[in-house]
Amino acid sequence: MARARILAAWMAGGLLAAAMPAGAAEGRDELARRADESRRVAMEFMRALKGELMRAMKAGGPVEAIPVCRERAPQIARAFSERTGWQVGRTSLRWRNPANAPDVWERRVLERFEARRRAGTPVSRLEHYEVVVQDGRRVFRWMKAIPTGAPCLTCHGERIAPEVAGLLDRLYPGDRARGFEVGDIRGAFTIVQPLGE
Ligand code: HEC
Questions:
Q1: pTM of the entire structure?
Q2: Domain total in the chain
Q3: Above 60 in pLDDT, residue 38?
């Protein structure tokens, strides 16, 4: 039974790659609806963040924009989390802020995104969701890859201006989020929605 449902969901969208726990109450439509909502919230999150980043870049260049990113990114994530009652954030296999490091589930999804990208899937189409049991509770988890664009290279690329690199060194001693190229997966939006019992 569970097997049939997984197979049906897999054939329908190719999104539900892992097993749903036995007795899952949510049907495929319900999960698709939750994924739609997650996508909408992530897009709003991105728009808000990009707006602030671009304004700061215009006003004072990357050196001024870095502190904005550092303060505003977590604040905006928190505001969205409070508004929705979900956990909303960003993560990456090569993170800048250790607070954004992936957990075990996120790491697995990110690694699968990398494999799918190598196999030719456009980064903008890399999305995954499933119901998982976490700390004894069932939750809906959703992730969507964030592509690296040209403007991102100022702070995440191979050749970073010395004053920018110097500030990043000071603020993020363990920074792993450099050396990206356009088209790489910079990271992913990640959302956890609590489910009823
Ligand atoms: C002005 C410099 C700057 C630019 C430009 C920039 N970022 Fe970042 N990025 C940062 C900083 C600083 C952080 C760490 C934020 C924090 O402390 O939470 C970060 C963190 C991130 C993270 C969270 C994961 C991690 O590494 O900690 C993602 C995802 C990300 N950036 C994607 C992008 C993308 C996509 C672009 C281009 C659209 C971009 N960034 C452009 C400075 C920048």
A1: 0.88
A2: 1
A3: yes
